[in-house]
Amino acid sequence: MADELERTIDDLYALPLERFTPERDALAKELAADGDRAGAARVKALRKPVVAAWAVNALAREDPEGVRALIELGDSLRSAHRRAVSGGDVEPFRAATEERRRLVGELTRTSTAILERAGGAATATTDAIAGTLEASTVDEETGELVRAGRLTKPVKPPATFAGAGLRVLEGGPSRPAAPAVAPKPKPDAAKLRRELSAAETRERRAAAAVERERAAIQDLDRRRSEAKDRLRAVEAELRGVSLERKRLANALDKLPDR
Fold it and tell me: Could you tell me if 97 and 144 lie in one domain?
């Protein structure tokens, strides 16, 4: 019974967005009528996904292999990051980061295409979709929600891996027993650490820039919506004035000549 309910909930999240709420409420009502109060309460509490989350959910169903590859890359990326900050080779981390960029871009394009086919406007949601996909490679819980296709809202990725609560691995490459005086870090390791620190700083700045631009887009969307409302109002006023002018002109034409 529990497995059947889970499958039914999966079906809810696979529905077109406008059907989610009525179908959810109908299912909750049906469960309550059957005496399953716990199931009814659980279904009733399900939140309708916002547009960007719905698009990512649809992506997980249309391209499960692509989503699986991204989430599995997240495992490699987190491991490579821990090794890098523990003094290991940073090249695997760089390679995994570049592969993530490629995969996120590819899957974002697929997700926005799905949204456009469904009649949605993809422009305002592209950043939220890309951010959620990126977050799925950093945070395991987000990754599982993306894989399951049950997101209700987009997720912002942390600015750096340090913000994701990742733990530095103890040890690293095997080393000889420490002499009485600890040796200085090897020049190449020190250089790599500096480069890694600089890369994380650039990443934080880029993330801040993304947030600024995202806020600017949202502000433009708001102002565009307000402008549309004003346009509809003045168009309605124009139609009313035009009708009044025509009425008065007709009335004047019907008057006898003086």
Answer: yes
